[in-house]
Fold this sequence. Notes:
This protein has 22 helices and nine strands. The protein has helices at about 15-25, 50-60, 65-80, 85-100, 125-140, 150-160, 165-170, 180, 210-225, 250-260, 265-275, 295-305, 310-320, 335-340, 345-355, 365, 375-385, 385-390, 395-400, 405-420, 430, 435-445, and strands at about 30, 40, 45-50, 105, 110, 185, 190-195, 200-205, 230-235.
Amino acid sequence: MGRELDYLVKIEGNEAILDRFIEAIFNNTCLVADNYPSPYVLESGERFYNGTVIDYFFQTTPFSEEKYTAFFEKLRALSGFDSYYYTLGEKLKKLISTVFPQVNIKGSSLKIDTKQELPPLTQEQDEILRFLCYLAIGHIKYDASYATITANEYFDLAKRLGSKRVDELHQYGSGTIASEIITFQDAQVNCTANDVLATINIIVQDDTEDTYRKVLTYINTLLKDDFPKSYAIEFTGPNLKDLEVDNLPECGQRYLFATAVQYESLHPLLVEYINTVMKKWEWYTNIDEEVCTMPSTFAVMALGLWDKRYFDLLINYYQVVDGEHQSIHQYYTLPFLQKYGIDSESIKVYIQGVLSMQEQPHEEIYATYFTSIEALKLLLDSKEHFATYYFSEEDIADFEDSGTEVEEMAEYCWESVMYTTFGLEDNYTSITQGWSTEAITLFNQLTETSE
C-alpha cells in the first residue's frame, strides 16, 4: 500500500489551486514545508509538490525570458536553487528540442544535428538560449563546485546554436552584482571580477598596509555578494611574501595572504575572509582539480603560523574541510610542529589535523616531537579523552545514526594518530630505543587496545 501524501501532486483538477500558487510565488506569500520533500504551502494551508508547480508554470505561461527569470528568482529566494534546478533543466531541454528542429534529446543530453543548417535565431529562440545561460549561471553560483561541468555544457550548447549571450557573459559577467563591487581601482590597486568565470583579478603597485587593506576589503565585500563559492584569485604585485610551507600549488591567493598577514592590523579582515568563504565541497578553481583546496586554506595557514591565538581557527578549518578529497594541508603539519612544538594547546591542533584527511602520511621527524615525558603524557591524555576532545556533537550524532559506537570510532582514529606520529608498529622498538623506563611505560599505554 502506497504512502498517503499530505500534499497535492496532480495538475488535473487542481488548476485553480495551482494558479493561486503561481500568484503567491510572485507575491512572496508562498511558504515551504519543513518536512521532505518540502512542498510549497499557501497561507490558507494547501500544500503542493514543487515539481508540479513548475510543470504547471511551463504548461500555462508562454515563454518570456523576463517572466521566467523573475519566476525562478522568486523560487530561488523561496526554496533555494537546489530545490528546482533538475526539474527546470529537464523542462528547458524539452523546450529547446521543440523550438530548435536541429536539436534532439539523447539520454540526458541535447544533441545538435550538424547536417541541418542553423538559420538566424528568432526572438523566442534567442530568449530561450539566454534563459539557458541563466540556468548555467545558477549552477556556477549556487550549486556544488562540480556543477560547472553542467554549466559549461549549457554554455557550449547555447553558443553552438548561435547565442551571443555566452561571449557577453564571459567578457562582462552576469551584470547582477553592482559595478562598484565588481571593480575597484585607484593608484595603488586594480581589482576586477567576473562572476560567470568565477575569477578575481588583483594587481597591486606596492606592498603597504593600506594597499592590502583595500584588497582585503574589496574581496570580502565581493564574496559576501552574489559571487560563486568556488573561484580563483589571480594576484600580482611587488615584494610578495610566501608561506613557509613546502609543496603548495602555485596560485595568486597563496602569495596574497602570505603577504597580507605581515600586517597585524589586517588580521580581522583575514578572519572575516575565512569565515565568509570556508565551505565544505567548494574549491579554488585555479588549482589543479586533483589538488583540491578549500577557499580560506592559505589565509588559515598564514594566521595559524603567525600566532597561537589562531589555533581555534585552525581547528575549525580542520573540522570543515572535506578530508575525503583534500589532503594538501598535510604539508602544513611539519611547519606547524617546527613553529610551536607540542604543548597542551598545540597537540589538539596537531591531532585535529591528522583526523582531517583520509591519511596523514608519517614522517620520521614527527616522532621527535613526542619523545619527552610531557609530550607523551599529553598524547596519553588525548587518547583517554579522545571523544571529548576531538569529536563534535555532529560527529557523535553521525556515528549513532550509522550504528557505530563512539569508542570504536575513537580507537580507529587513534590508530591514525599513532601511525602518523610513530609510523608502522614494526618501527616502535627502534623508535623507543634508549628511552627512559617512564617514557617506555607511557608509550606502551599509548599502544594498548581494548579487548
